[in-house]
Write a structure and sequence with these properties.
Homodimer. The protein is an alpha/beta fold. 22% of the residues lie in helices and 27% in strands.
Length: 317
């Protein structure tokens, strides 16, 4: 039996704030967690984030990649082992959990934490990738401060889009919410608040065709009216995309109970899933808060839940 085939105590799938925090706690508990960190983007969404100013402990802010590197080093310091590969298949229903990665290796453990996060839905329009982090953002609470007294555009029509638009109206010289329909998925109270906000305008029945800039930062968006095909340009130094998230849970199949959007369902305030020995933490199980600090807190809870599970289910019983 090779080392990789040995039965481990715990495998953590994912390497964002939730995964690394769980690894730190489990490592300090002497459980030597295996972290399957991903092949292309270990560290999660923060790897693509510039300055993070709202993570406690960094009064001058910290770059997203630096924060995740610090978390990785801290996890490794306490004995976490990292594998930079992608999970393609799992067998989680038995007492021994099996996790298979794209490189062909197969790992087994008594417990698994799913901490794979979620990805922002993109508009897939010209300029979106080019100006990502240079005007294009997917998190108002993360980046709104940088657009003080500048024109801002928010794209979306759900509660998240309206919440972001209201929040951003504290900073921007103006906020324009662009939605492809003339009706909203957002709750009536959110729409009423937006209508009452003098700094917030709405452009309906319209889609963003492109995000334009000077090569350094975003300056405007090109908008097409879906009913008239009229093309207009709206000034925007900040373009906030709020059209939803995609939880990274497809590899789980139908083993773990998910909601209708694909988020892992957990039991009450715990991180336990419907399967004994399988836990979930971070954005893949949290469609509400979706912040680095809340994901880290959930990773801590998952680690403590795993410790309790392993203590209550000794090997061989």
């Amino acid at each position: 039996m090779t080392e990789k085939q040995e039965l481990r105590d715990v495998i953590i799938i994912g390497s964002g704030p939730a995964g690394y925090t769980a690894a730190i706690y489990l490592g300090r508990a002497g459980l030597k967690p295996l972290v399957i960190a991903g092949a292309l983007t270990p560290g999660g969404q923060l790897i693509n984030t510039t300055e993070v100013e709202n993570f406690p402990g960094f009064p001058d802010g910290i770059m997203g990649p630096d924060l995740m590197e610090n978390m990785q080093r801290q996890a490794e310091r306490f004995g976490a082992e990292l594998v930079f590969d992608d999970v393609i298949d799992t067998s989680l229903e038995g007492e021994e959990k099996v996790v298979r990665v794209s490189g062909g290796d197969e790992f087994r453990s008594r417990a698994v934490i799913v901490a794979t996060g979620s990805n922002y839905r993109h508009l897939d329009v010209p300029g979106e990738d080019e100006y990502s982090g240079r005007g294009v953002s997917y998190c108002a609470t993360c980046d709104g401060f940088f657009f003080r007294n500048k024109p801002i555009v928010v794209v979306g029509g759900g509660d998240s889009a309206f919440e972001e638009a209201q929040f951003l109206s504290r900073f921007g010289s103006s906020v324009t919410l662009i939605h492809r329909r003339n009706e909203f998925r957002a709750s009536k109270i959110m729409v009423d608040r937006a209508i009452a906000n003098p700094k917030l305008d709405m452009v309906l029945d319209s889609v963003v065709e492109s995000i334009n800039g000077d090569g350094t930062s975003a300056e405007s968006v090109t908008v097409r009216n879906l009913k008239t095909d009229e093309i207009t340009t709206i000034p925007a130094n900040g373009v906030f995309v709020a059209v939803g998230h995609i939880p990274q849970t497809g590899f789980l199949g139908d083993q773990v109970r998910l909601d209708d959007r694909g988020y892992v369902l957990t039991e009450g305030a715990s991180t336990r899933t419907n399967l004994p020995g399988v836990f979930a933490a971070g954005d893949c199980a949290d469609p509400v808060y979706m912040q680095a600090i809340s994901a880290a807190g959930m990773g801590c809870r998952a680690a403590l839940d795993v410790q309790s599970f392993l203590e209550d289910a000794p090997l061989g019983q």
